[in-house]
Amino acid sequence: MTISQTITGDRATPRRRRRIRMSSVFWFTLPAAAIMLLVLGVPLVYSLYYSFTGWSLVIPGSDQDFIGLLNYTDVLGSSEFWAAISVTLIYAVVAVSLECALGILFAILLNMEFFGRGLFRSLMLIPMVITPAVVGIFWKLLYEQDSGVFNYLLGTVGFEPVAWLSLTFALASVIIMDVWQSTPFFTLIILAGLQSLDRDTVSAAQADGANALQVFRYLTLPHLVPYIMIAAAFRIIGVMADFDKIFLLTLGGPGNATTTLSVYAYNTGFKVFDIGRTTAISWIYVVFVLLVSAPLIWRLFRGASVNRH
Amino acid sequence: MIAAAMANRSTRKMLLTLFWCALAFVYLFPYTWMVLTGFRHGVDTISVPPRIIFQPTLDGFRHLFEVTGFQKYLLNSAVVTIASVLLVIGVSAPASYALAHLSKRSGVLLVAILVARIIPGIAIGVPVYLLATRLHQLDTYQALVVINVAVNIPFAMWLMRSFFMEVHPSLREAAISDGCSEWQVFTKIMLPLVLGGMLATSVFVFIGVWNEFLFALILTTSVSPTAPLAMLGFRTQYGVQWDAVGAAALLVSTPVIVFAFIMQRYLVQGLTMGSVK
User: Fold this and answer.
1) DSSP label at residue A159
2) Is residue B20 part of a domain?
3) Which among A197, B18, B126, B267 would be 20 to 30 A from A148, CA to CA?
């Protein structure tokens, strides 16, 4: 085929070519789209439908009771629901702030020059990837009041044992566990930010007499802000969907001290078997998470639409 | 003068190294303790004070395999994970290529993918359970594979799309002019170019599925759980068997740690769905 033929061929059939292209888009995306639609979309629609019924697995025939918005008004009026919201928010805000602060600190320390830096960068990743269920069960052992190693270590420096998993401390213990596991996530992303900071700019500022604190305040920190925002956005979404670790550490207890929205939804569905109510909670939960993550979705979407060749 | 400055510098490096040794020791202590627990007699762990120095033993592993039958759970996890990874990649690769190179107006699909990625699993837990019950699919590999595939497709598509975007579109145009079909362009030109990215994506999906707990909890009974779910069983019986818990924790978490180390280069890109490189 010569070049001129190709060109005339192209000119002759632009419409046909476009159609081929659209049909291949369809076939290329069909399997993935179909699975997402059937396995994620259909259950979501089902659960919207159930949320308007009074269906409870312990009351036969109740799946036919249409009760309108009663589940929603019920849930929104219950103190348990608002307790779960407040536990989720406290958990998210406190854990993510601490992770962010510690993450920045670790990243700066890992960005300095010392021997074995690569090794330490790798080692600090370990907590982040350990199976959350393993973290949950193991931290339960660490937190044991009488035989746990934390209280033993506190004892050796003269402190009284702490009732880590009691009503007073359980939420704090869950937060500490998550801070331990997720700080490396912040460290990793902020370190990537530090490494992309232009060294010449920093040297120029230093040559102009800026001290270390000024360099950090006026150069490093502004440069890191987008990295911190991205990490925080992903973490907030992760924390709000968190289930495994909390479930294995406390089962949401004692009482409902650590019952986050996800644990609350699980318990209503699989302990009380109240389908109507659970699906209503699920939908409120979905809307809540989507509202909180809307800025991140927008940012990712914008980034994806812009960086075409 | 220069020698003094250099000496100063290496002292600083030395001090920082020491500082990091101490910091890493403290920070990783829970992990170290977990590893040690797997090799220590249960009684040594619960003795007061806990024994820091002890006679190492493989009793925990022995108990785990001979009494608990943990190998069965590891096998369940392996089967579900490997099948899910293959399916996720097989289905997502063409889709993400199409999104990156063929479609100019994919906005709706992109937002749908992001929303699907962000919706918490528990939100569809109940209907998924009811559907699986109705279709008699509780306690089956296929139920777990199907749900894990669906949950991981959005992530895999988004990440692989960012790898396909790095390939210049002129490559496709040239191949099309040479008479390649879209499918040939995809399999012969694009796939080999993004192999590294595909491998990285596979590893991320592997870690995600291997660590998955919620749907395993919903879709399996205690008879045939995956390894992370089997950890739940220890919640009630650990009192006697700390060594077994430690051994199980080690066996479940080691593969993912190893994979994460291997994939370190791609970690940032993967964790931020391609928004930070």
Assistant:
1) P
2) yes
3) B18
Tell me whether residue B237 is in a domain: yes
Does residue A270 lie within any of the structural domains? Answer: yes
Which residues of chain A make contact with B253, given a CB cutoff of 8 A? Answer: 129-131, 134
The predicted pLDDT at position B222 comes to 66
Q: Two tokens at B161?
A: 């799309």
Residues 6+ apart with CB under 8 A from B212: B148, B151, B226, B228
Higher pLDDT, B147 or A68: B147
Query: Which residue do the tokens 């009630």 mark?
Result: B236
pLDDT of amino acid A18: 57
Which of helix, strand or coil describes residue A59? strand
pLDDT at A133: 92
Measured distance CA(A251)–CA(A13) in Å, rounded: 64
User: Among B204, B212, B207, which residue's Cα sits nearest to residue B156?
Assistant: B204
Q: What's the pTM value of the predicted model, to 2 decimals?
A: 0.88
Q: Is B265 on the interface with A (CB under 8 A)?
A: no
In terms of residue numbers, what domain contains A226? 78-306
Contacts of residue A21, defined as CB under 8 A and 6 or more positions apart, other chains included, come to: B102, B182
What sign has the CA pseudo-torsion A109, A110, A112, A117? positive
For residue B174, the one-letter residue type is A
A265 near B CB under 8 A: yes
Within a domain: A27: no
Chain centre to alpha carbon of residue B260: 8
Q: Tokens 């109240």 sit at which residue?
A: A274
Q: Does B16 touch chain A (CB under 8 A)?
A: yes
Tokens 């995306």 sit on residue: A29
ipTM > 0.85, yes or no: yes
Structural domain tally of chain A?
A: 1
Looking up residue A169, the CATH number of its domain turns out to be: 1.10.3720.10
For B145, name the nearest residue in chain A, comparing CA atoms only. A39
Q: Are residues B79 and B153 in the same domain?
A: yes
Q: Is the pLDDT of residue A95 over 90?
A: yes
- Chain B residue with CA closest to A261: the answer is B122
